[in-house]
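call fold(seq) -> tokens
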Amino acid sequence: MAWFFLIFAGLLEIVWAFFMKKSDGFTLFIPSAITILAMIASFALLSVSMKTLPLGTAYTIWTGIGAVGAFLVGIMVLGETATPMRLLAAAFIVTGIVMMKLASNQ
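ret:
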């Protein structure tokens, strides 16, 4: 169950990052509210997953899901550039996430 909470927390990190961008510096109410609610939920789920998962594993995977997810949303939704170097960097992050999961015995 901890892994489910951790993955969902990472997905919520993508949500709050996207809506923070859309909030225009917290000047738009709805995107700002979604940002704050998604942040709270993401942190809460991360903390629940950390009851049984190692800190380093949980935090690395949480931030990795958020980083790669926000990167992909930026490309697919916001029209940001997908240069070979940026794609390679994202691939390295995904590799690190997989390695952390494989190294965890939970």
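Helices lie at 2-22, 29-49, 55-76, 84-103.
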